[in-house]
Amino acid sequence: MDKKYTKLVNNLIDLIGGKENISYFTHCVTRLRFNVKDKGLVKEKELDDLEGVVGHQWAGEQLQIIVGTSVGEVYNAIAEKYGFEQDSSVNNNGGQEKKKKFSFMTLIDTIASCITPVLPVLIGGGMLRVILLICELIGVLTTESPTYVTLDFVSEAAFHFLPVFVGAASARRFGMNMWIGMFFGAVLISPTFSAMIEAGDAGSIFGLPIYGATYASSIFPIILTNYLASRIEKFITRVSPDFLKMMLVPLVTILITTPIMLLLLGPLGAFIGDYLTISILWVYDKIGFFAVALMGALMPWLVITGMHHSFNPYSFQSIATRGYEPLALVVTFINNLNQGAASMAVAIKSKNKDLKAVATTTGATALISGVTEPALYGVTLKYRTPLYAVMIGNVAGGIVAGLFQVVIYAFAGSWGIFGLPAFIGGEGLSNFIYMIIAVIVGIIVTFIATLILFKDNIEEEETINKF
Predict the structure, then answer these.
(1) Domain ranges in the chain?
(2) Looking at residues 137-146, what average pLDDT do you find?
(3) pTM of this prediction?
(4) Domain 3-96 sits in which CATH superfamily?
């Protein structure tokens, strides 16, 4: 681990009330996420002043500490130092995660934690597709060449076997045996089952007909299944004699869960995934560029509140099943680059050396890697007017992207400028060129708006944490 995070690792847990105050510990792309038992024990001011912490916010009872792209490294170091079981809800609470009141944000956080660990697979497979398209466009490979054919089915595996990957992640999230969770995902895409569905007869079980839904590239059926299976597995584990647990727990869990999955949860999950995507795309089709512009205006606040995660399931489903996404991820790119542009404008206009340094560093991070929390919490939200400039730039870039019907074809490895090749696809390079235009418009408008709105002599406003 980088030495600059030593102080962070050594002091963070004490500032949130000690290990005993933590019931659940995980992380996402840029944030450490702690479920705490007593919010009153968290020293919020000291947390924000801790070296390596960009900021923090609360999502219900969950404390989210923003550390940036090194979050995985910091997470592993903390887990090792304090003996936390990584990627598991089993922690400091009698063997299970503390029960939380149901809320929309709890639901979103649960779904996000089931699919976020799968992102590296989708990024790898998606960007491999992009490389193949580029090679085809410049004439290096043809679609009939053996190399192209091989790499094509390799990239396709990332999406076709999505139920297996999400099965592993959701099993860990719900505290059940990961291999059993993957097993249920494999059942959903079994070659025999898939062939039966394609033939028009999905079979039956216990005399009840099985609905012939297609589960390749799906996420909701396996998440629903593993939620139920985790409850069944824990119950069977509790009531089984010790000498029979190794046999009874997996056997009974599979026997009880499988019929419910095939008859009810699988079709229900497929319905949710299909109609969630259809509904959002219907709105996009009806109001076109206005939808992109409106989401652009709201995106900074969606990130602040954590509500941007609510679009993750739809984005996964859209790219996995349709091969593109025209709204949430497009706006995410525009917003990320505009956060960087606003920070750079602040760096140029400000005469404060410390602010110049912070704005330059965070601006470059947003532009190059697409990680915006440092810029958001360190500059744009802190001074407010740069945030308004980002919203204005997002609307401008969103209008261009919406008018040209820009879509993204893959999950990018970077959500900054180096991720823009993810917009290469379809017929030729037109979609990519239109996105470049949208990005340039957004950056220019954001930069100018920041220079106009930002006043260097204002006093710093406290970062908003109530969201």
Answers:
(1) 3-96, 161-278, 288-453
(2) 88
(3) 0.73
(4) Glucose permease domain IIB (3.30.1360.60)
